[in-house]
Write a structure and sequence with these properties.
The complex is a heterotrimer of chains A (255), B (266) and C (285). Chain A has 255 residues and is mainly alpha-helical. Chain A folds into 2 domains: 153 residues, no CATH class; 58 residues, no CATH class. Chain A is 72% helix and 4% strand. Chain A contains 10 helices and 2 strands, in the order ααααββαααααα. A two-stranded antiparallel ribbon of chain A has the order 1-2. In chain A, helix 2 runs antiparallel to helix 5 and helix 6 runs antiparallel to helix 7. The longest helix of chain A has 31 residues. The radius of gyration of chain A is 25 Å and the shape is flat. Chain B has one domain: 3-Layer(aba) Sandwich (Rossmann fold). Chain B is 39% helix and 23% strand. Chain B has 11 helices and 10 strands. In chain B, the strands form 2 sheets. Chain B has a 6-stranded mixed beta sheet, with helices on both faces. A 4-stranded antiparallel beta sheet of chain B has the order 2-1-4-5, with helices on one face. Chain B is globular and about 60 Å long. In chain C, strand 1 and strand 2 form a beta hairpin. In chain C, helix 4 packs across helix 5, helix 4 packs parallel to helix 6 and helix 5 packs across helix 6. The chains are: A mainly alpha (255), B alpha/beta (266), C alpha/beta (285). Chains A and C meet through helix 7, helix 8 and helix 9 of A and helix 3, helix 4, helix 5 and helix 6 of C.
Chain lengths: 255, 266, 285
């Protein structure tokens, strides 16, 4: 049973970069195309992100996500191409539907920004181990309780699956059919949900006791079993990223 | 024809790691306890008997019905299993409704189902709590509700999975009586159990499992006298038997009464 | 020297209709190994929860009297503070897995990170206690994907690793087979010999008879008796009070075999000696 996570474990250059640096980069990469909303800037970021994902050996995983969004993007092109407010220059017609240059360019800008956001977040999702990300944030001041809530999402499947299976076995054992048509399977749902939810509520209550008696609420400075080793190079990388961002802002303000 | 017939059973969860090997058993009327350390395969065997799992090789017949050809739900009228943790089973907010669930699944009409439910609730001594919400009851009381739920379905074979865990002395006495009554009514009662004293007192036949195989299968007096086999299975004999071993007595004792009577007759 | 002093402790849960604990007063010495027995609803679990401050701080309700662990009054300190001195392992192991960690190894680290233990010390303790509880081989597994027995050992190891002064365990071996429960009792006994004060609730009378020093007998929230185990198990009203006597004591009682101090033997060795004494060695074979 896997925990919920799209993280892909590979030995790549990108994987070696620490989560905080990646978070800083995410911010810069997502916001910049809005600060300078040109097609050129968006395209540059999209290209850079694709390179990063390729270096991270995870580019293949992004393709299904992009394909899924593809249809929405086509729709944007069609609608903006035909009905964008600033349309004036006709480009081509098909079956008496006219597409204009301005609309298509507008659609291109939106599409590039959307793809850029997807690719940027993919970097974090695919190359950062969630538990490490959460721990990095807690080290730097994220309230541990918030970190715990975020982390608990990862454990939902392992926590629930064995209980769910036992509950299903118990109800089948009492004559409840689970196989058959949709109606039978729906009827079977109720005796499964009840114990699952109740068990979860009771578990959560008792688990919070377990956390208390292990000093989870203590105000002492927490230590960490895992060592966080951030190579000095990272500091330079972060500086470079931040400088690029400042340059972009200045560019926008000045020009 | 035996009530339970296990023929050349082989089972694994993952290929390459056998969990049960070469199991052959015929169970009829003798109350039977399956003992063995954690991981020996007892729970897996019980799940196979209940058709919750299907054999990889071999066959299991419950009252002449092959488990491979019947779903667990359809065999529920023949063979019942009281699960270890009541919380894994209880979902109604009323004891009576909870106990009725089983009989209703067996296609009894509402009136008959209620009749059966009330009767079994009385048998476990919970009639005062019949309208209570099971979630307001203690763990022991909920255990009794789950036992009633299975008794209400009146299966000929009834399996108790670790019935004494977490139960206090009074409750264990109650459960002992329920088991004795089932045996008296001619039901085949099986148990998975770690409590050797409980087992020695109530069960006529013992099956010792170790690493997926049956190490011993026979009357309680015989099996509990086989020290080497019990050692191999990482088990200890019942307390009275340990005493007997220490004293060098060759007789096998199963209960305190046996032991005391022996000395009274000296 | 008293480690735990309980004075007139009474408590009622918020939705309760009667007191779960009624005027309990007793002293537990440092290094004692105490067993708590009684039927269901006797107040055993509630007493355990009081020792670590869950009662009253987590459960609220009506609390009167006081519990002192050394000089620490549980009323005036948070659960986090009390839990530095008092460790609690309770019945359901599944609900004691924190959910904050993805491996058994890290799970034990959780309770140590929270108290700011240095990394090297953490590793030392985790290695030691995982091995003591015989789950070192499972250290890379997800704590929710191990067996019930392994979970129980993990819960115990997680609290042991914090090295509390007082170790409270409420039915800690229910999921374990007899060999497993023997190993756990043995390990705890070893620790108690190093001056650790141990309080254990159990229905396994024979194990209590073997390992404990004293027994506290509770019924309906009250202390019925608190004394050395030989004296408690010698009572002839244990069954009425909802407690099963250890089997060897029962046999001794029915065969009228008392030792020189006029107690019934509580373990097998002593019973054997008395049987041999009375009947010689002539048993028909």
């Amino acid at each position: 049973m896997r925990s919920i996570s799209l993280y892909v474990d590979k030995d790549s250059l990108i994987h070696k970069i620490d989560p905080i640096t990646k978070l800083i980069y995410t911010f810069v990469s997502v916001i910049s195309p809005f600060i300078i909303p040109t097609i050129l800037v968006s395209s540059i970021f999209v290209a850079v992100n694709m390179i990063i994902l390729t270096l991270g050996k995870v580019f293949k995983k992004v393709i299904p996500i992009i394909s899924f969004v593809f249809f929405i993007i086509i729709t944007i092109f069609i609608i903006q191409g035909m009905f964008y407010g600033g349309n004036s220059t006709e480009l081509f017609s098909v079956f008496s539907l006219t597409f204009y240059v301005e609309g298509l360019f507008y659609a291109l800008r939106i599409a590039l920004r959307a793809i850029n956001i997807l690719l940027t977040f993919s970097i974090i999702i695919l190359t950062v181990k969630p538990s490490i990300l959460i721990e990095s944030l807690v080290r730097r001041g994220l309230p541990p309780k918030l970190g715990y809530v975020m982390h608990s999402v990862l454990q939902i499947i392992p926590m629930m699956s064995s209980t769910a299976n036992t509950i299903m076995d118990a109800q089948k054992s009492r004559g409840m059919e689970t196989e058959g048509n949709l109606w039978i399977r729906m009827k079977a749902f109720i005796p499964l949900i009840g114990p699952l939810v109740m068990n979860s509520l009771v578990s959560t209550h008792e688990r919070s006791i377990a956390l208390e008696v292990r000093s989870f609420s203590a105000k002492t400075q927490k230590t960490f079993l895992n060592e966080e080793k951030i190579p000095a190079a990272m500091k330079y990388l972060r500086l470079v990223i931040i400088l690029i961002f400042i340059a972009i802002v200045v560019w926008r303000v000045v020009l | 024809m035996a009530k339970i017939s296990v023929n050349d059973l082989f089972f694994h969860y993952n290929k390459g790691t056998p969990v049960l090997k070469n199991i052959n058993l015929k169970l009829n009327n003798s109350s039977t306890a399956i003992i063995g350390q954690n991981g020996a395969g007892k729970t897996t065997l019980v799940k196979l008997l209940k058709s919750l799992l299907k054999p990889i090789a071999g066959n299991i017949y419950i009252n002449e019905l092959n488990t491979k050809e019947h779903s667990a739900a359809s065999l529920a009228s023949e063979i019942g299993l009281v699960f270890q943790n009541p919380s894994d089973q209880i979902f109604n907010n009323n004891v009576l409704e909870e106990v009725k669930f089983g009989p209703l699944n067996l296609d009894y009409d509402k009136a008959k189902a209620e009749e059966l439910a009330v009767e079994s609730i009385q048998r476990v001594g919970m009639e005062d709590m019949i309208d209570e919400n099971p979630y307001d009851l203690s763990l022991s009381e909920r255990k009794l509700v789950t036992i009633a739920s299975i008794l209400a379905m009146d299966p000929e074979i009834i399996i108790f999975d670790e019935p004494t865990i977490g139960q206090d002395y009074e409750n264990i006495k109650l459960i002992k009586n329920i088991i004795k009554n089932e045996v008296k009514d001619g039901k085949l009662v099986l148990t998975i159990n770690h409590d050797m004293d409980f087992v020695a007192e109530l069960f006529d036949r013992i099956i010792v499992m170790n690493r997926g195989e049956v190490l011993a299968d026979g009357p309680a007096e015989k099996v509990f006298s086989k020290r080497k086999i019990l050692e191999k299975a990482h088990l200890e004999p019942p307390s009275v038997q340990k005493l007997s071993n220490d004293l060098g007595i060759e007789k096998t004792f199963l209960t305190k009464k046996d032991f005391i009577n022996y000395f009274n007759s000296l | 020297m008293s480690k735990v002093i309980i004075k007139n402790l009474s408590y009622q849960y918020p939705l309760g209709d009667e007191n779960a604990l009624e005027d309990i007063s007793l002293k537990i010495n440092k290094g004692d190994f105490l067993g708590i027995v009684g039927p269901n609803k006797a107040g055993k679990s509630t007493l355990c929860k009081s020792l670590v401050g869950l009662v009253p701080h987590f459960y609220n309700g009506d609390f009167s009297g006081e519990i002192l662990i050394d000089d620490l009054n549980t009323k005036n300190h948070s659960i986090s503070q009390i839990s530095l001195k008092v460790g609690l392992v309770f019945q359901n192991p599944f609900n004691q897995i924190s959910g904050a960690k993805l491996t058994v190894y890290d799970e034990v680290a959780f309770g140590l990170e929270n108290i700011g233990l240095p990394r090297e010390k953490m590793i030392e303790r985790i290695d030691y206690y995982l091995k003591l509880m015989d789950i070192y081989d499972q250290r890379a597994s997800n704590p929710f994907e191990i067996s019930g027995g392994q979970m129980q050992r993990l819960a115990i190891a997680s609290i042991m690793a914090r090295e509390p002064d007082v170790f409270v365990l409420d039915e800690p071996t229910s999921q374990l087979d007899p060999q497993g429960s023997k190993e756990v009792f043995n390990a705890i006994h070893k620790l108690s010999q190093k001056d650790l004060t141990v309080i254990i609730v159990s229905q396994k009378m024979e194990r209590l008879a073997k390992y404990t020093d004293n027994i506290l007998l509770l019924n309906q929230g009250r202390v019925i008796d608190y004394d050395k185990k030989e004296k408690i198990f010698a009572r002839d009203d244990l069954e009425e009070l909802g407690v099963r006597p250890p089997i060897y004591t029962e046999i001794a009682r029915k065969m009228n075999l008392k030792n020189d101090k006029s107690y019934y033997p509580i373990n097998r060795k002593k019973l054997t000696d008395l049987v041999v004494k009375k009947y010689g060695q002539n048993f028909s074979k």
